[in-house]
Every structure is written in C-alpha cells, then in structure tokens.
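Below is a filled-in request sheet from our internal design queue. Each sheet records the structural input a requester submitted and the sequence that came back. We keep these sheets so that new team members can see what a complete request looks like end to end.

REQUESTER: design group, bay 2
PRIORITY: normal
MODE: inverse folding
CHAIN LENGTH: 206
BACKBONE (tokenized):
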C-alpha cells in the first residue's frame, strides 16, 4: 500500500511469502478467500474499494478476523488499525485521532463507520482529503478499473498484502458479475461524491 497520502502501488506481481512457510501461506490464502461475492452498483464498488484501501494502508500486525470490529486511528503521519476502542483510551489526543469502527466482511471488503472527528477541520480531515486525492488520481489513469485493483504488493506487510490481494479478487468478481468489467477507470469518476466521507458509510452508497 502506498504511504497514506495516496492509494497507489498495489500492482506489483512477484509472489514471495517473505518468511511464511508454504503451508502457512496456503492456509492464509484460503482463509482470506472472498466469500459471497455479488454484483454491486458502481457507488458500492467504489465505496468498498476506497474504504478497503484506506484500512489496508494502516499499520497492523495481526490477522484480521471476519466480522470482528477494529478501530482505525491517525497517528502522526500514519494510519493504525487497533483492537482498542476510543473509549478505552485515557488520552484525549488518541480519541481525537479516531477515524471509525472497521469491519472485514465475508467478501473481503472493509467498511468503516466514520466517527464525528472526520467532520471537524484539522489534521485528520486533511489526511482523508489527501487519501481521496490519491484515489481520484488512481481512477483517472489510463486503463480499466480492474487494472488498478491490487494483486500483489511486495512492499506491504504480510497481512496487508494478503488481504489486499483478496480485495482485488473480490472486486474483480463483483465487476464481472455486474457486467462492468472493461469499463475505463476515468468513467468511474462520475460515480464518486465530492466528499470522501460519503464513501466510508457502507449503507449510504448505491
């Protein structure tokens, strides 16, 4: 995943488990396999894509569990995914850095329930604007949307790389089922809201 200011760099193609044994890698690959992939309207495809890229750009060193709620924070110049909810922190600074509650769904896409912090001017809102700008640039490149979907990214930590690949498989499946494969990335820009926060609320996108 790119540094959090953009959504680039998820298209390298060199399979290397980097320290994971073959059996462990195959088990994790099977575990991360998208399930229940369905056709989705354009707004939902883009929401799942953007939100999942944001979560997978975060620092975390654990294997995410499907259906488990995690918590996304902005720490300095980094995003961090944590098991610790904002009310469990004593630090007011930590609470102010809270982005929202994240869930990994069966189809290997992520959702975020945004916190009220994103509506307040400041570093957190500015950081989200930067990520969104990178996402818009990604869609505006030559080629189709599926050309930009993640397949393998050797620079990512292991679990982020694993679930980025699963995200790519999931969204490619959704595009194929919905008859949307081959549509130029630039055409998808018309389906995007101006405010990135509207993409983060899974239930608000059609």
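RETURNED SEQUENCE:
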């Amino acid at each position: 995943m790119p540094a959090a200011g953009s959504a680039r760099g998820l298209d390298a193609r060199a399979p290397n488990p980097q320290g994971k044994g073959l059996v462990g890698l195959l088990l994790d690959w099977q575990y991360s396999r998208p399930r229940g992939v369905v056709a989705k309207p354009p707004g939902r495809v883009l929401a799942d894509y953007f939100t999942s890229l944001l979560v997978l750009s975060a620092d975390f060193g654990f294997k995410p569990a499907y259906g488990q709620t995690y918590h996304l924070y902005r720490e300095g110049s980094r995003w961090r995914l944590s098991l610790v909810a904002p009310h469990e922190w004593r630090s007011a600074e930590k609470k102010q850095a809270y982005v929202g509650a994240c869930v990994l769904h069966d189809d290997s896409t992520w959702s975020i329930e945004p916190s009220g912090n994103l509506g307040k001017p400041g570093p957190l809102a500015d950081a989200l604007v930067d990520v969104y700008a990178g996402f818009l640039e990604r869609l505006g490149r030559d080629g189709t949307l599926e050309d930009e979907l993640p397949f393998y990214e050797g620079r990512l930590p292991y679990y982020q790389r694993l679930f980025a690949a699963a995200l790519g498989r999931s969204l490619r499946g959704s595009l194929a089922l919905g008859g949307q494969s081959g549509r130029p990335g630039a055409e998808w820009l018309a389906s995007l809201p101006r405010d990135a926060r509207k993409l983060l609320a899974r239930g608000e996108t059609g």
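SHEET NOTES:
- The longest helix spans residues 158-177.
- The chain has eight helices and four strands.
FILED BY: M.R.
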